[in-house]
Model the fold of this input.
Amino acid sequence: MSAGQGEVPAAFLEALRSLRATRLRPEIRLVEVPGPGRIAPFSAALTGDVTAPRGAVPEDLASGRFVVLHDPAGQEAWEGTFRLVTFVRATLEAELGADGLLAGVAWTWFSDAIDEAEITPIATGGTVTRVLSQSFGALAARPDEVEVEIRASWTAEGPDLGPHLQAWGTLLCTSAGLPPLPDGVVSLGARH
Done:
């Protein structure tokens, strides 16, 4: 947590508690990292990696960052006091890189995750970037690589940020290619 001058507001402490109480899928490994210090008086940040299920070849399927910004006075562009800034990066199959619909599809992953969490974001905006890497010369034998990057930000209506973190976790897993889990079902991973 990064805090400006003065006492930490009760609303920000409540927001942090709501994040700590949120449980994400077991494939997501979260790490708390320092939040940005200049954008808002109070901030917190998490990084997340989606790893291959147990028993599979170990690899990171997707990674991202979830940032909470809090300005008790609010900021006009935010239309509120809690701004969430997210980033997700995932490697996709090479043939998807040429698909002109990829960015639109990736943005629906975000929209669907928000809808599934039953939250109403305010002042939502974002971008989807696809990166195609081709190798040449001594590296020409490497296959083409395609990454998609989804950046989104929105304002939460209040300090209960658990559903927002849940939506980001869903976006991270969808980007990694993991199938959705029906309500009440827990992912057990591969059998040994």
